[in-house]
Design a protein that fits this description.
The protein has 29 helices and 30 strands. The chain is an alpha/beta fold and 836 residues long. A five-stranded parallel β-sheet has the order 8-13-16-1-17. A four-stranded mixed β-sheet has the order 21-22-24-23, with helices on both faces. The protein is elongated and about 155 Å long. The two termini are 23 Å apart.
């Protein structure tokens, strides 16, 4: 009888944490900590990405939701912000050379708002003081003198013209000084149209000639009068400008002294002074309140004075630290700002004061934090962000131009130099997808911070888990956890990552468990969270989330899904499928059935033929033929037709974790020996028969155990798993209790052949020098049947249909030399042969 491998001990199925290993009775005794731990390599990478000053070294943090990646980023940036450079303030001001292109001004932190207030006060002061100065008695006297002098000059000119025309008896002058016209006359007295028509024709002609000549003299005189008026206005304007210049220079001189340390502000104030002096009369103008167009005039004057305002786009306090902007809704407007419009008298108008900032402007000089999923779900945002990082310029968003649409004339603000570091966090699949499909991504985000979903499990990290729990209790106002509860949370951290020697860094899930356990403790009237409260919280979560699993178990209990773990059967055993629904997957038993018979069709995968098999499963299935050929077809052809299928499985099959179970079932069908149906198998294998690890091994074992419980079977049951999966075993208390009592056994194997004593009670068999296997071994029985089929195929079909004569001779020679005899009683032409 072959030696049956020993089942694993209950202590090997789960790594427990001893509450006594913690030097505290409850987390009240600990110093709370909310620091991120277990991510030393990620911390190093992020520190590098935040510290390097080089274009394109923006940061992408890879990590799953709930892994603490955002907390990690916030803590790192908070530390950077405290010790980093102070940011600059930014303003938009009127461009006196081109009003469509507002000018950007950079100021030290805290200066933008001051400049804005100073300009508002200056404008208010000048709009009051300039008109007062122009109304002053001396200014009014000088203005009146100019107007009187020029008026006298114009009057004298027109009087001389009138005197010259008085001598002409055929014309007369009528109208005001600057609007006189020449009319026909007789004897120097003007005549009307009827009188004119009553005159003889030759007399009319004479009058027309005199009127035409006099009209030309009047027009020339009027042009000279208009020129005199223009010179008068110029002289008055010069007087006003001189008065305004003195006021403006005095007032702006004070501002220039206040902002002398900022060169571009001093230059801007010089341009303001020049423009104010040039338009000094605007300060003194006033509309007629009775004029129906007064409102339009008032609006026009206000629009004019808006040119002297300051749009304080980005303002910081004087003691500002490095800015950090975290955007939860990164649409185009929120991220880049925009230029807003105003509907006035049915017309959309805008100006530089209506430019609003976005997160990139507020974060300039610091850090911008974005979530990848939100970023890439917003139209137009990613191209705009790439362009800003590539050109290192920040401009307000314009959705119409981004879409390539034709728009009316609008502002083109001067770009602000981009001096920010962008930190994007998202799932790994999105990062690698971007590297694949976007040629610019790698050059713009050169720093990859790979946030590990797990960390090594040690005494130190278990203690850090306890500190984390203490921090959550403080920040979330939870009751303290005793040492037993902390131990249970640590063990659940290992289950989350599916490894005895690692702990999950998905702290969001751990924090959720803490809240749920605190709720259970509160419901039980406990002031301290205990281990039983944590266990009840996990059980309650399973009850909420495992409805699909319960329905599968109900189908098994009612016999709808056929599951019979008792007894033995040829070519039949159970594999375990993994179903991913919700937070945790679960396993369900799947009957693997095989049949083998004479033929050359090879092994047929029914799932593959029905197109229910994925590529990985197909690959694992094809390995079976490689194993059979290597083990049994070295000296004779493999004459075999067989089929494999999964019973009551109608969805697509993927993965290779059933390949070992398929090979066990296939060889059982070939050799005709039974297998234990109460022992399930999970594991992949290669062509050399090495058992390879699979995923979800804990969930598979627990799923098979639950199925056995559902049918009420109390006989010996168990699961064969790859030994390489031992560290992945984090089995529940129920399974461990059953294993300890011997009612449920878990076996671990390295090589395919090690499983035969467990499943069949037979040894695999070792070949002798001739390649023959012991007749009572698994391989001996399989080889015996394959030889028999080879002989039968030769007898039925001849050399053309099967193996050649030389190959059959080899078979016969092996039999005569003591190999396993083939049953040939029914073979034609084989009468009288003896079975050794």
């Amino acid at each position: 009888m072959p030696k049956r491998p020993e089942p694993l001990k209950a202590s090997e199925l789960h790594r427990t944490t001893d509450p006594a290993s913690f030097p505290f009775r409850s987390t009240d005794e600990l110093t709370p900590s909310e620091a991120v731990f277990g991510q030393s390599l990620a911390m190093e990478a992020l520190d590098f990405g935040l510290s390097i000053v080089s274009p394109g070294h923006n940061v992408f943090v890879l990590g799953s939701p709930g892994s603490g990646r955002l907390t990690f980023i916030r803590q790192a940036l908070a530390e950077r912000a405290r010790t980093g450079k102070r940011p600059s303030d930014w303003c938009y001001v009127f461009n006196f050379d081109d009003s469509r292109r507002p000018q950007a001004l950079e100021l030290p932190a805290g200066q933008a708002r001051k400049l804005q207030q100073d300009m508002e006060e200056l404008l208010e002061d000048l709009r009051r003081s300039v008109p007062e100065a122009l109304r002053a008695e001396d200014v009014a006297g000088r203005r009146q003198a100019i107007l009187s002098s020029r008026g006298k000059e114009a009057t004298e000119l027109m009087e001389r013209l009138r005197e010259n025309l008085v001598e002409d008896q055929y014309v007369a002058l009528i109208g005001d000084l600057d609007a006189q016209i020449v009319v026909p006359a007789r004897g120097g007295e003007a005549i009307d149209r009827e009188q004119y028509r009553a005159l003889p024709e030759d007399h009319q002609k004479t009058i027309d000639e005199h009127v035409d000549a006099a009209g030309k003299r009047v027009q020339a005189a009027q042009r000279e009068v208009h020129e005199i008026g223009r010179r008068a206005r110029e002289e008055v304007g010069e007087l006003h400008q001189q008065v305004a210049r003195n006021l403006v220079i005095q007032r702006i001189g004070h501002l220039e002294e206040k902002h002398a340390n900022v060169k571009n502000v001093a230059q801007y104030l010089e341009r303001v002074a020049e423009d104010m002096v040039r338009h000094a009369t605007r300060f003194a103008s006033a509309e007629d309140e009775n004029d129906p167009l007064a409102a339009i005039q008032r609006a026009g004057r206000e629009d004019f004075f808006r040119r002297y305002q300051i749009n304080a786009l980005v303002c910081h306090p004087p003691d500002a630290t490095t800015p950090v902007a975290e955007v939860s809704n990164p649409n185009l407007r929120n991220l880049f700002g925009r230029t807003e419009g105003e509907l006035r008298f049915g017309i959309m108008v805008t100006d530089f004061t209506r430019i609003s900032p976005g997160a990139v402007q507020r974060a300039n000089g610091g850090y911008l934090v974005l979530e990848a999923g939100e970023l890439f779900s917003r139209p137009l945002v990613w191209p705009a962000l790439k362009r800003a990082l590539r050109t290192r310029e920040l401009t307000p968003a314009d959705a119409a131009s981004e879409l390539g649409l034709s728009v009316s004339d609008s502002l083109e603000p001067q770009p602000i130099p981009a001096r920010l570091k962008v930190v994007i966090y998202g799932e790994p699949r999105l990062y690698y997808l971007l590297r694949q499909v976007d040629s610019e991504f790698a050059s713009l985000f050169k720093v990859k911070v790979d946030f590990s979903p797990w960390m090594e499990r040690s005494r130190e990290t278990e203690t850090q888990y306890a500190d984390f729990i203490a921090g959550q209790c403080r920040s979330q106002d939870l009751p303290p956890f005793d040492a037993d509860a902390v131990a249970r949370v640590v063990e659940e951290g290992a289950r989350l990552v599916g490894n005895q020697n690692k702990l999950s860094t998905r702290f969001g899930e751990v924090a959720d468990l803490l809240k749920e356990a605190a709720h259970q403790a509160g419901g039980a009237g406990e002031s301290v969270v205990t281990g039983s409260a944590v266990a009840e919280a996990l059980a309650a979560r399973d009850r909420r989330e495992q409805r699909p699993h319960r329905e599968i178990l109900d189908l098994i209990h009612r016999g709808t899904l056929d599951f019979q773990p008792e007894g033995q059967a040829v070519g039949e055993l159970y594999g375990i499928g993994l179903i991913q629904v919700g937070r945790r997957p679960f396993g369900r038993p799947i009957r693997v059935m095989a049949s083998a018979f004479l033929g050359t069709g090879g092994v047929v995968n029914i799932e593959r033929e029905a197109r229910l098999s994925g590529p990985i499963h197909n690959k694992g299935f094809l390995v079976l033929s490689g194993y059979l050929g290597q083990r049994f077809a070295q000296k004779l052809p493999l004459i075999l037709s067989a089929s494999l299928s999964f019973d009551q499985l109608y969805e697509e099959v993927e993965g290779d974790s059933a390949s070992a179970a398929e090979l066990y079932a296939l060889m059982s069908a070939i050799g005709g020996f039974p297998l234990e149906r109460g022992i399930a198998v999970t594991g992949a294998l290669n062509q050399d028969g090495v058992i390879l690890p699979v995923g979800g091994v804990t969930e598979k074992i627990e799923g098979f155990f639950a199925a056995c419980e559902a049918v009420g079977y109390e006989g010996p049951t168990g699961v064969v798993v790859p030994r390489k999966n031992l560290e992945n075993l984090t089995l529940s208390t129920e399974v461990r209790t059953a294993a300890e009592s011997g009612r449920f056994k878990v076996y671990a194997i390295d090589q395919f052949e090690e499983g035969w004593p467990i499943l069949s009670g037979l040894d695999a068999g070792e070949p002798d020098e001739d390649g023959s296997y012991p007749p009572d071994s698994v391989d001996g029985r399989v080889m015996s049947q394959l030889k028999a089929w080879a002989r039968q195929w030769k007898a039925f079909g001849g050399p053309d249909a099967g193996p050649g004569e030389e190959q059959v001779a080899v078979v016969e020679e092996m039999e005569e030399d003591g190999g396993v005899a083939v049953p040939d009683d029914d073979m034609p032409g084989s009468e009288g042969k003896e079975t050794p």
